[in-house]
Amino acid sequence: MLDLGSSKPQLDTILTKAGIKTINTSAILHGDFTALTADGWKLAKREKNTAVFNRSLKDLDINPQNQPVLITTNIAPDHDINPGVPGYPDDETFGINKFMRLTVYDLPSGLTRFYLPGFLRAKRVLLSGSFNNWSTLKGTMLKTDSGWVADVKLAPGVYEYKYIIDGRWQRDRDNLQQHPDGFNDVNSVYYKYNHTFTLKGYTNVKKVTLAGSFNNWDANNIVLQKIGNAWQTRFYLHDGTHTYRFLVDGQWLTDPANPTTIKDADGHINSVLNQGETVTFKLTGYTQAKKVYLAGTFNNWKPGEILLKKTTTGWAIPIIVPAGNYGYKFIVDGNWITDPVNPRHLTEGGISNSFISIKPNYTFKLAGYGKARSVHIAGNFNDWDPDGLVMDHTGNEWTIKMYLKQGKYRYKFLVDGKWILDPGNKLYEQNEHNSGNSFIWIE
């Protein structure tokens, strides 16, 4: 399937990567498919900006696909980086790896090794996954005497992957953790661990398990292993506030090594684990106020949940917030106000809120435009809301830092109401308005 909405340089590049060379792309974009048909391709269907071509798999010498391939630089729709998209796992509270035979494991160097046993007659094997944007060009694996290996640098998190063995996609048959791939098959899932739970002593007991808010208090699926004079388990745990207890031979026990506890609605005492970035929210002034609360997208805008403490200059509270982009406000004696010292704002549902990014991993920059009254940025990360994100003017640049998950992001700047491409980014693609969008990939 050809996307005729692509530009000539874009189509040149993608056709070359697809193995289709010496093709007059200008003619194709004007509806002349003579060169393709002469090369053995048959026009099957033509609809608006798309043209579907068929060719025998024997001629192509590739494996069959479950659906036509879209040959375009417009790789995925605007929702390609939203949660739940096949191939890019949604945020999960916790995860434990389950292997019939250990084929993915961490090395002392900090790298993660992927091992594919067998297939010694294969000519080429690639490792492809959410960590390299499902590349079919990168991820070449090294052949050993017993299989194939590739070492990858991964941060703690959840990853999906498959192997490409001489052009054929295959999941890891030894990995029992799977997610649907969106094409009537599954991807293998690997959890890069970031937390260890340890219970020292109790060497005479038979069984120790762990349950908490992260696994819906299931006391059966996290079993600790006895190691020396302690019980231990490791798994991936998402940033946030978690409550938990150990179950020791059927008796509930809070963590003796953790002094932080809380009583739940049923009167049980649970240990508390805060994992993530500690952020101190401050509101200067308002010393005559009786109560000041904080609310935002990080707590589903619950108005009476986070109470600030009074200081000599105003109000403050440190809280644990997972990585992400958030809107927030202070509630002063029932009145909602934005943060007076934060110039960045986020429009949500027509309401302007203060904006904060926790553990930002990308900075959007626009140089110049010093006389502009305001500069906004909009893209598929905020549903293209032109009032959504206000950039800050510092020196000769307008900037905003954001936390972006893996995936492709399209965006534009809005300078005093006028849309412009990012002059500092050579990557762009055409849009339905024929004005183009800048884009970046986050790996």
From TrEMBL:
Family annotation (Pfam families): AMPK1_CBM
Organism: Mucilaginibacter dorajii
Family to which the UniProt record says this protein belongs: Belongs to the 5'-AMP-activated protein kinase beta subunit family.
Name of the protein: CBM20 domain-containing protein
PANTHER family in alphabetical order: 5'-AMP-ACTIVATED PROTEIN KINASE , BETA SUBUNIT (PTHR10343), 5'-AMP-ACTIVATED PROTEIN KINASE SUBUNIT BETA-1 (PTHR10343:SF84)
SMART domains attached to this UniProt entry: CBM_2
Domain CBM20: 109-189, 276-356
Domain of life: Bacteria
